[in-house]
Design brief:
This protein has two domains: about 1-120 and about 185-215, no CATH class; about 120-180, no CATH class. About 45% of the residues lie in helices and about 10% in strands. The protein has nine helices and four strands; from the N terminus they run ααααβββααααβα. It has a four-stranded antiparallel beta sheet. A hairpin with a 3-residue loop joins β2 (about 100-105) and β3 (about 110-115).
Length: about 220
């Protein structure tokens, strides 16, 4: 089934041009009908479709979907609303950005599907680097496989200028050891959101991500 219409993108595009509380409040009913409600139904169906990939996926759409309201308390950018809708499908939902799952983002311009590791504490980061360092050939084989590179291209993330000395030698061979994050994504034309097989397209994409995501997950502990 198709979850979204051209009105979905039209609203997000208009919000980008009119990002203020007065405009949003005047158009809130439309936001609910063409963006919020369809996205909740979509994420609910996607959670159900993703459930077989996890030992447990105890979340509802409200646990996965990010609010459209920006937290501007500590930001110089006081624009009140995000111009995208997004959600994380993983056992911890939006409150846990560590366990690899699927992050969905729909903007006025495109749709993006992310996976990998995004938010790591210092111990987890050390563990993942150690796992990569001890399994260099396997890691390189996974991230350079034609199926992975065709879909996601490469691993991204912020980098440290310095890393623990015991990784220095291996980092000459595998520069991704400098990463603080290990995520990857694919971008689709915005018209993709109208597809009847959108859920299957996303689960197929997750199948492509799984070998790398599972390798990274194993390294967390």
């Amino acid at each position: 089934m198709a979850y979204f219409t051209k009105e979905t993108i039209k609203f997000l595009s208009n919000l980008k041009k009119n990002n203020n509380r007065e405009w949003f409040n005047d158009n809130k009913a439309q936001y609910i009908s063409v963006v919020k409600d369809p996205f909740e139904v979509f994420i609910g169906d996607l959670i159900e479709a993703m459930n077989p990939y996890f030992e447990s996926l105890p979340i509802a759409p409200k646990d996965a979907i990010f609010r459209i309201y920006r937290d501007v308390r500590f930001s110089k950018n006081k624009i009140p609303y995000k111009t995208n809708v997004s959600a994380i499908i993983s056992p911890g939902g939006r409150k846990d950005k560590t366990i690899p799952g699927i992050y969905i983002e729909i903007t006025p311009d495109d749709m993006r599907i992310y996976s990998g590791l995004y938010q790591l504490d210092s111990k987890q980061l050390f563990n993942v680097r150690s796992h990569i360092s001890h399994n260099m050939d396997e890691f390189q084989s996974l991230i350079s496989s034609p199926k992975f590179t065709k879909t996601f291209t490469d691993i991204k993330g912020e980098k440290n200028k310095r890393i623990p000395k015991n990784f220095d030698t291996d980092a000459l061979q595998q520069p991704l050891l400098y990463n603080k994050q290990f995520y990857f994504f694919t971008s689709w034309p915005i018209t993709s959101i109208y597809r009847d097989d959108l859920i299957k397209k996303i689960t197929d994409t997750f199948e492509t991500a799984r070998p790398v995501s599972e390798f990274l997950y194993e390294g967390l502990f």
